[in-house]
Amino acid sequence: MLESKDEKAFQEGAKKKFQDTVCSLLFSIIFLSFYFIYLLLWIKPELIYQAQEPVFFFDKYFVNELFSYPGGVNELISCFLSQFFYYSWTGALLLVLIFAFVAWNTKLFIKSIRPNPQIHYLHWLPTVILLVLHSNYRFPLILTLGLLWILIGVNIYVRLAPSNNSLRFLSYIIIHAILYYITAGQVFIFSIVIILYDALYHRRILLPLLYIVFAGLLPYIGASTLFVLHIQDAYVMHLTSYNTYRLTWLSLSLYAFFPLVLLLAGFEKKYVRNSQKSSNNLFGRLLSGRSVPIRLIQGVLFLVLIIIAVRHSYDKNGKAFLMIDRYARFEEWEKVLDIAQKGLPISNIVQCQVNRALYHTGNLSDKMFSMIQLFGSDSLFMAENMRSHFALQHSDVFFDLGLINESEHWAYEAITVNGDTAWNLQRLVMIYLMEEKREIAEKYLAMLQKTIWHKAWAKQYHTYLSDSEDFWAHPQIQYLKSTMPQSDFLVSPTEPELCLEKLLENTKNKMAFEYFMAYCLLEGQVGRFIKHLHRLNFFDYPKIPRHFEEAILIYDQLTGGKSITLPGKDISEETIRKFDDFNRIMAKHNKNKEAARGELNKYRDTYWFYGLYYFKP
User: Fold this and answer.
1) Could you report the per-residue pLDDT of 31-90, keeping only the tens digit for each?
2) Could you say which DSSP state residue 118 is in?
3) Partner of 555 at 20 to 30 A CA spacing, among 137, 277, 508, 576?
4) What's the average model confidence in pLDDT over 393-410?
5) ∠ Cα 306 308 311 (to 5°)
């Protein structure tokens, strides 16, 4: 009878354990699948690559440099892994795997302080915070990896550290020192967790005090002897910031999660599990209950929490900005315009990329004012205070215009700001091939051949070093060569638009012509626009571009009907009809532009509407 009861209890225990395992596995699959879909379809890790442009070379000098200071090992690993953001699916898979390891190590940590009750979903909470953090395209992978190494170190200590105080202290010293070299300042999370763990769960007092002393001295000793570091950096590097990224309250709450779990587990052990009624009260059931309905309810509530978190962290405008910038990088101009037409993020750099896309699709002079122009002529070259932040994009505009030397200047500015990124190096290769400086181009091609994703590009362009005829045979290169200025001149660092009129001396530079005419319109310089209108005949325009027609009619009105003639081209009847209607509506409202705006809104894609409502002298 006794054996029967024991066997029955064993079977029930095995059944519950099986149910726990199945439920845990099921919800793990659901959570990770949701993470993957969200990252792949909404965040698009390729945009993380676009925002951060991580640098990694298979080069001993690059690797050795990162081994020379605390945190360099973690930085090296994160630089390598960040390359997988180049494609969205590999980036999403990478993040999901890292989140899974974080959850698993968190579960091991919680089980070490709460060995009996089943762990359901608490260990997934750090991954929810990480998912929200990685919804910010600037959040660096190195901080997530640093947390993972810290959790691994914590689990090694709590599971393997001997009970003997001397050996336990030695174990702490070894693990702490290794983690400090790997993660730099993030090692203090390890110290806080271990100090609380030994103080609360092993009732030790002297050891935690020794840990505090060692944790405080190690960075100082390292900065004074082994590493070339400022004392402050030795303590906070990779803890409060990484490069230009500064930690937010959300990052700090992630760090605080693990000490908080220790405190709450201690509270539960003392005030909940020791209570005779703990197994019957609601708190006890929710915390330690094993019934399938409760686990399902908890799982659903946790999934709702994830959905709410990602909904509030999803940056729609930031994503649109980066997508426009990425499509411009790969010269997918139609896609740039598709996004802009769905709702243009208000940004100077976006406006510049959209106008660039309009030119490359042949629509700048016909559809520029279909997009709201809020920045005047800065929507062609971007505002001065933005150029250093987006130096490569600024370089690209000069390259398109045939100003190769100025493009080179801004490409080096981009390297100063962002480092030897693959796209910066590609721009320099193109520049030096255009300038026929093959030795310098070869230097940057050799660097690109040590990257992961740009080897094929480097190999292709390396062939041009020995056979430049193939390079110059490319239609785009031929066109760029034909547009280069016929004589040297200086480009104003503060007013680069002034170079456009000088570029017009080359009658083959269509982009310089359209950008100059757009500049005149955006700045309200209609007279200057008319002065250069005859240059329209240097290019193969089948008719007068629409915005040119609109500007001609304004000039005609302002000068009392002075005629503008272009041989073989006339202003369309439709544009004249619209202009007459525009004037009629203004007259109807006694030239009160605010009163007329409702009716004039149908002409919001015209130069007239821009001049009335958006132009700022």
Assistant:
1) 899 999 999 999 999 999 999 999 999 999 999 999 999 999 999 999 999 999 999 999
2) P
3) 508
4) 93
5) 105
User: Which of 436, 380, 389, 427 lies closest to 406, judged by CA?
Assistant: 427
Q: Report residue 50: phi and psi, to 5°.
A: -60, -40
- List beta partners, residue 80: none
For residue 611, what are the contacts with CB-CB under 8 A and spacing of at least 6? 524, 554
CB of 503 closer than 8 Å to CB of 538: no
Facing residues of 569 across strands?
A: 566
Give CA–CA dist 539/443, Å, rounded: 38
* Residue 411, SS3 per DSSP: helix
Q: Are 352 and 381 in contact (CB under 8 A)?
A: yes
Contacts 24+ apart (CB under 8 A), 306-312: 306/31, 306/34, 306/128, 306/131, 309/128, 309/131, 309/132, 310/38, 310/42, 310/131, 310/132, 310/135
Pairing state of beta strands 245-246 and 241-242?
A: antiparallel
Q: Residue 495's pLDDT is what?
A: 79
For 530-548, the pLDDT digits (tens) are 999 989 988 888 899 999 9
Lowest mean pLDDT among 112-116, 218-222, 451-455: 112-116
Q: Which residue type does 392 have?
A: L
- Residue 128, exposed/middle/buried by CB under 10 A (0-12, 13-18, 19+)? buried
Residue type at position 275: S
**CA gap 171, 88 in Å, rounded:** 41
Question: Quick one: tokens of 262?
Answer: 């220790």
Percent of the chain with pLDDT over 70: 90
The answer to whether residues 350 and 324 touch, using CB atoms and an 8 Å cutoff, is: yes
What mean pLDDT value characterizes the chain?
88
Predicted local distance difference test score (pLDDT) of residue 276: 45
Q: CB atoms < 10 A from the CB of 556, how many? A: 16
Q: From CA 513, how far away is CA 503, in angstroms rounded?
A: 8
C-alpha 512/C-alpha 498 separation (Å) is 11
Collect all residues with Cβ–Cβ distance below 8 Å to 195 and sequence separation of at least 6: 208, 211, 212
What pLDDT score was predicted for residue 273?
A: 55
Confidence band, pLDDT 50/70/90 cuts, at residue 284: very low
Q: For residue 562, count CB atoms less than 10 angstroms from its CB and return exposed for 0-12, middle for 13-18, buried for 19 or more.
A: exposed
Q: What is the 3-state secondary structure (H, E, C) of 200-255?
A: HHCCCCHHHHHHHHHHHHHHHHHHHHCCCCCHHHHHHECCCEECCEECCHHHHHHH
Domains of the chain: 20-313 (no CATH), 320-542 (1.25.40), 543-617 (no CATH)
Instruction: Measure the N-to-C terminal CA separation of the chain; round to a whole number of Å.
Output: 98
| DSSP state, residue 566 | B
